[in-house]
């Protein structure tokens, strides 16, 4: 059977979520590099994997998927017994699973839109020769600070966002956090002691380091 393939760009936050998950699971895979232009890649071959033309896309044998968080959940379930368990300790406990799922929704709808916008302003604009809009940065940092206040309260009670074990809820944050730690927005993490400790824990993981190489 054909192996695992990821179609994406190694610098893409969404692609990195998938790569992180594969590294945590110690799975072999092929990264098929996709050159980005306005965030889209519209060759016929790529569109057969993702009709919306966004990275990443994913192939595991005959299965084709797109949307990074759907891909990571597939990997975590399909390869549950391999590498790091990225689900709750008791994956059949619906209450525990719901807490993890809730955390993933918070990341997707509350954290990521702000963090990705800040990464665009601080990092990707510079790559494309554009100028950071400091007014946008200030506005998005104020919003992200409120989200991180919620995280700080949560992390006073638990080591990780979904409890006391590392799960997909935490993993999904890592790529954007890594970018922001190299920018002035880092202060939003470091000035919150429990958030700062959590960030240190999740970014020092071997898989987190691999995606920076």
From TrEMBL:
Chain ranges of the GST N-terminal domain: 2-83
One annotated Gene Ontology cellular component of this protein: cytosol
The protein's name: glutathione transferase
One Pfam family this sequence matches: GST_C
Principal subcellular localisation of the protein: cytoplasm
Domain of life: Eukaryota
Keywords: Cytoplasm, Detoxification, Transferase
Organism: Brassica campestris
Protein location: Cytoplasm, Cytosol
One GO-annotated biological process of the protein: toxin catabolic process
């Amino acid at each position: 059977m054909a192996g695992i393939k990821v179609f994406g760009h190694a610098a893409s936050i969404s692609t990195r979520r998938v790569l992180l998950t594969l590294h945590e699971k110690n799975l072999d895979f092929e990264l098929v590099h996709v050159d980005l232009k306005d965030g889209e890649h519209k060759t016929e071959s790529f569109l057969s994997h993702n009709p919306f033309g966004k990275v990443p896309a994913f192939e595991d044998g005959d299965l084709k998927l797109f949307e990074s968080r759907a891909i990571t959940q597939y990997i975590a379930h399909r390869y549950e017994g391999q590498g790091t368990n990225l689900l709750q300790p008791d994956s059949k406990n619906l209450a525990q699973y719901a807490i993890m799922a809730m955390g993933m929704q918070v990341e997707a709808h509350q954290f990521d839109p702000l963090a990705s916008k800040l990464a665009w302003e601080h990092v990707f604009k510079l790559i494309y020769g554009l100028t950071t809009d400091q007014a946008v940065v200030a506005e998005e940092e104020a919003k992200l600070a409120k989200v991180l206040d919620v995280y700080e309260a949560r992390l006073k009670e638990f080591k990780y966002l979904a409890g006391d074990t590392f799960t997909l809820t935490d993993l999904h944050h890592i790529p954007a956090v890594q970018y922001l730690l190299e920018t002035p927005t880092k202060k939003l993490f470091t000035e919150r002691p429990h958030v700062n400790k959590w960030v240190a824990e999740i970014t020092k993981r071997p898989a987190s380091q691999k995606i920076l190489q």
